[in-house]
Amino acid sequence: MKKTVSLALACALALCLLAACGSEAAEPEFGDVTAAIDSAVDTSSMTEADASYIQGMFGLREGDYEACLVLLTGVGTNIDELGLFKGADASQAERLKTAVTDYLQLRLNSWMPEYLPDEFPKLQNAKLWTEGSYVMYAILSDDGREAALEAFEGCFG
Prior knowledge:
This protein is α+β, with helices and mostly antiparallel strands and 157 residues long. The protein has six helices and five strands, in the order H-H-E-H-E-E-H-H-E-E-H. It has a five-stranded antiparallel β-sheet with strand order 1-2-3-5-4, with helices on both faces. Strand 2 and strand 3 form a beta hairpin. Helix 2 (30-40) packs antiparallel against helix 6. The longest helix is centred in the N-terminal third of the chain and has 22 residues, at 2-23. The protein starts with a helix and ends with a helix.
């Protein structure tokens, strides 16, 4: 009797483990997500921020994220910006979300009203999205933000 109960419990545990493993979808590769966003949003006038910018503005050092890409406008007539971070795990992703939230608030707090007043709504309407260990933000036009979000979410479908 004990053997039968033990065997039944072992089988039930094995089935639970298999079900849990099967229900977890693998996250997309970072390069696949950036490629999807790049194909949806015109980033041709943007340049990639370097590690010193990421550290100075976000307070993040290499090792605080698994991968990141921050694209900034290369021209002085708009403030377009897009960022994607991938954490190594859920707790790191949560810290990345906090860093990006703080960064967006810093940008709002330091905005000079006389500087490109027509661009300010992009910053006011900036969005932050999370999915799994990914954190993405966009300071873009309404259409650009929607395209970025659609591309981002499409990677996790």
